[in-house]
Amino acid sequence: MGDIKDHKRVNDILLGPLERPALQWLAAHLPAWATPDLMTVIGIIGALVITLGYGLSNFHPAFLWLSTLGFIINWIGDSLDGTLARYRHIERPKYGFYIDHVTDVLTEVIIILGLGLTPYIKFAVASMCCIAYISMSVLVYVRMNVMGEFKISYSKLGPTEVRVLAILLNTAMFFGGLFTFKLSLGSATAAISPYDLFVTAITFLLVYFFADTSIKQSIALRKLGE
After folding, report:
1. Mean pLDDT by 10-residue block, N- to C-terminus, for the chain (226 residues)?
2. Per the CB 3.0–4.6 Å rule, which of 69, 130, 143, 147 could disulfide with 112?
3. Does the pTM of the predicted model rise above 0.85?
4. Rounded distance between C-alpha atoms, residue 201 and residue 79, angstroms
């Protein structure tokens, strides 16, 4: 494994042209007491707010807006910690990488399993999505060690787009309300919601990215004889 600071970072996301200038503007206007570590903590707080809103949505759907606010808080914290460090030229590559990605895994688990606390989505469906998302995270870190490339975007999709999809899902659950339909698979019949299907589709997309990247990377490495 090479030096962390020498690894190529690939974040070619759909919303990049909007996100990057916004993050630079925020980094330039944050007060001196707003440190990268504080941004990391804010990202974790955002994840907890998301899960709190999802849990409380069992009592009233309006709490889904609290989860949406949590996604915005999480985006600000998670996206600004590294951006702020680079803007102020106070990077600590090993410490920053370690803290950032340990907390990333923690917040991913909190958020996605929190989704399963809502009355709209089955916990088993959320759990499968969590496994797929964590698998992609592991793949990103393994590729970085092997190829020296930190690639967090696939088909123009990255963490920011996932947050936007989650906010759209929250909006759909609020306005669409609770309803299910019966899905028959042979002799088995299950009640499923359209929100379950949406999360399942995201899960399959993540599984596809994982399998496609893993296979192609394995073939490339085999040809290199490394």
Report:
1. 64 88 94 94 96 96 97 94 90 86 92 94 94 93 84 88 96 92 71 92 95 91 78
2. 130
3. yes
4. 26
